[in-house]
Design a protein that fits this description.
The chain has 17 helices and eleven strands. The protein is of the alpha/beta class and about 375 residues long. The chain has two domains: about 250 residues, Rossmann fold (3-Layer(aba) Sandwich), CATH 3.40.50.10540; about 80 residues, formyl-coa transferase, domain 3 (2-Layer Sandwich), CATH 3.30.1540.10. Strand 2, helix 2 and strand 3 form a beta-alpha-beta unit. It is elongated, with a radius of gyration of 25 Å.
């Protein structure tokens, strides 16, 4: 696989860091999850099936688990033994914590100059908010993204996806892979400072037009992507389900309106977004509301149009497209797993469905780092390696 031979030490918890290292693990990297004495919190978040939560199973399958109490110097010494043989180091402590523990980039790169060290925090290592704690929702709020997601009452709605977490994860993954590639030329690693806030702002290229070109804030209901275009909108069907239109191109507008018997509205569908499109939106709302979602599935089947049913997530994973692409699979115990979205023709990734118990790999990881059985026993006695 693409990352065979790459060893990753992951000290992060919850979502951005574990998600990015899971992607690396699925493509061959050896990922050692360095868990705190109480374990990764995601072990206990949500319902449990066959001993693990789906959250933990989805972000830690195939990884190794080593529990270290980094408050103790013996544990930090062990970590540095691991650093000497690692390629990537991921941490998500608040700024300054790694330095206080003596495991910041300066200390780690002194042991291993080739290591790629990635810090993921809410606001990065600099700026007036660097020390403020925040999770996904607050980051989306401060990055202006939560304001774009309005409910039917016109107020900001709770987002359905952890966009800031995912932006940070994938931005960090990109940075790590670029640094690993550059290392093949220079022989040296690098330090990567990932801010969830930066990453979220960095994913807004398609919506900054009014700000950057006209110097104005968005008029949410009248903008292209949030209700100002009839052909980029959500419509209720007769059975209380929903469907979406998402194609504003001339051919799509013309095809749909001819199909619905209203070619006279084509010019309106091609007009600029805003209040002038309200009559067209009203017509489409009334038209789609006359029939059930199943009716519209059949109606759209032979038409080249950008549309989609609004499915719940259970339906989405069961959809024939997701099944055909392997985006859901099951392990030997029948536990569902999310598939791999990165698909290589050569050296495809492969999910290792084994999920580590807390500290399950302590002995093997420590022996691989050169520690004797006596040293391992002493670490357990001291509490540096709990359990």
């Amino acid at each position: 696989m693409k990352l065979d031979g790459v060893r990753v030490l992951d000290l992060s918890l919850l979502l951005p860091g574990p998600h990015l290292t899971q992607t690396m693990c699925d493509h061959g990297a050896e990922v050692i999850s360095i868990e705190p004495p109480g374990g990764e919190p995601a072990r206990a978040f949500g319902p449990v099936k066959n001993g693990h939560t789906p959250w933990f199973r989805s972000t830690h399958r195939g990884k190794k688990s080593l529990c270290l109490n980094l408050k103790l110097p013996e544990a930090r010494a062990v970590l540095m033994r691991l650093v000497a043989r690692a390629d990537v180091f991921v941490e998500a402590f608040r700024p300054g914590v790694a330095a206080r523990l003596g495991i910041d980039y300066a200390a780690v790169s002194a042991v291993n100059p080739r290591i790629v060290y990635c810090s993921i925090t809410a606001f990065g290592q600099s700026g007036p908010l660097r020390d403020r704690p925040a999770h996904d929702l607050s980051i989306q709020a401060l990055a202006g993204v939560a304001n774009l997601n309005r409910g039917t009452n016109g107020e900001p709605a709770l987002p359905g996806m952890p966009a800031a977490d995912m932006c940070a994860s994938l931005t960090a993954l990109s940075g790590i892979l670029m640094a690993l590639y550059r290392r093949t030329v220079t022989g040296r690693g690098d330090y990567i400072d990932i801010s969830m806030h930066d990453a979220t702002l960095g994913w807004t290229q398609n919506v900054v037009g009014p700000i950057f070109a006209e110097g104005r804030a968005h008029d949410i209901p009248n903008e292209r992507g949030w209700g100002g275009r009839a052909f980029y909108n959500v419509y209720r069907t007769a059975d209380g389900r929903y469907l979406t239109l998402s194609g504003n191109e001339h051919k799509f507008v013309e095809s749909l309106l001819h199909g619905l018997g209203r070619p006279d509205l084509v010019a309106l569908g091609l007009s600029a977004p805003g209040p002038q499109q309200a009559p067209l939106t009203a017509f489409l709302r009334e038209a789609f509301g006359r029939e059930t979602l199943e009716h519209w599935r059949h109606w759209f089947r032979d038409k080249d149009l950008c549309w989609g049913e609004v499915l719940d997530l259970k339906e989405a994973f069961a959809h024939e497209q997701a099944v055909a692409r392997g985006m859901i699979s099951a392990d030997g115990e029948g536990n569902p797993h999310i598939g791999l979205p990165v698909r290589y023709a050569a050296e495809p990734g492969r999910a290792d469905f084994r999920v580590p118990a807390l500290n399950a790999d302590a002995a093997s990881v420590l022996r691989d780092a050169g520690l004797s059985d006596g040293e391992i026993a002493a670490l357990r006695v001291s509490g540096a390696v709990p359990g």
